[in-house]
Write a structure and sequence with these properties.
By secondary structure, this protein is of the alpha+beta class. It is built from seven helices and 20 strands. It has one domain: Ribonuclease Z/Hydroxyacylglutathione hydrolase-like (Metallo-beta-lactamase, Chain A). The longest helix has 17 residues. The mean pLDDT is 95.
Length: 272
């Protein structure tokens, strides 16, 4: 029996004979996919057509994604630290080559997830990699489709999961949307891993949305809150959840410019 994968969002469900009647994430108003358009597959079914790719993203950080693109097409990030490696977000597909490569790089001490859109097959990734804990915020626990002892639900506004690796609840896109602050990232200047919580524009700015797919913007208070959450944390680089979403330098300035522009646009609609 397979653990079914939603082809729309990539979320993995428990092992079962029949696919679930709906995908709870695709039915959520942030995606709003009609029930009749939900479809299913499994890791076994795509094993001959998909494979995992790896790419160095920056100093001490590597991207891990699926080709051809699957689900929402997001990629994971492996952050390497002297105290252990952290896997940030999970694709829906993991193969033997991935296990061998990550193990050779020191394995994974912890997995952490930004929003339910990046949960993928997180429980299976953990099991394949020796069952490290998976950190996800309590405010989004209703999107957990594969309950498992490896899931570590955190409830505060911040939690340090390894020395210099801190999860910050920024909210906005989802109530429990999180960022990962890596103190030694960007060659010691600090890095923020945004996953699917924030998106990077082609021009190197940030988008703050309640729904990126149905284009519902975030309100001004929530945007200000994200700025406040990041205020105490030094950073120069910001890595979004997709291959092309990287701000290698001056990311705090990009955050400030992006927030001011969007709040201005929300506050001053044009007069007609
Ligand atoms: Zn789905």
């Amino acid at each position: 029996m397979p653990a079914f994968l939603c082809t729309g969002c990539g979320l993995q469900y428990p092992i079962s004979e029949e696919p679930p009647p709906i995908c709870i994430l695709c039915r959520d108003e942030r995606r709003a996919i009609p029930r009749e358009r939900h479809s299913w597959t499994s890791q076994q079914a795509i094993r001959d057509t998909h494979f995992t790719v790896f790419r160095r993203i920056g100093p001490g950080i590597m991207g891990i994604g699926t080709q051809p693109s699957f689900g929402l097409g997001h990629r994971a990030l492996l952050v390497r630290t002297p105290e252990g490696n952290v896997l940030w977000d999970c694709p829906s597909f993991i193969d033997e080559a991935t296990r061998i490569l990550i193990t050779a790089l020191g394995g994974v001490a912890a997995i952490a997830l930004s929003t339910p859109l990046s949960y993928g097959a997180a429980t299976e990734w953990s099991h394949v990699l020796g069952s490290p804990p998976i950190y996800l915020h309590a405010a989004d626990r209703r999107f957990v489709t594969r309950p498992d002892p490896v899931l570590t639900v955190w409830e505060d506004e911040a939690v340090e999961i390894l020395p210099g690796i801190t999860l910050l609840r920024c909210g906005g896109h989802f109530p429990g949307a999180a960022l990962l602050h890596w103190a030694q990232g960007a060659e010691g200047q600090g890095a923020v891993l945004a996953g699917s919580s924030l998106h990077v524009t082609p021009g190197g700015l940030l988008r703050f949305m309640r729904s990126y797919e149905t284009h519902i913007p975030l309100d001004a208070l929530s945007i200000r809150h994200i700025q406040e959450v990041l205020e105490p944390w030094p950073f120069d680089a910001l890595y979004g959840g997709w291959w092309d979403q990287v701000i290698p330098h001056d990311a705090r300035l990009a955050l400030s410019l992006s927030a001011e522009r969007m709040i201005e646009a929300l506050s001053n609609p044009p007069a007609y």
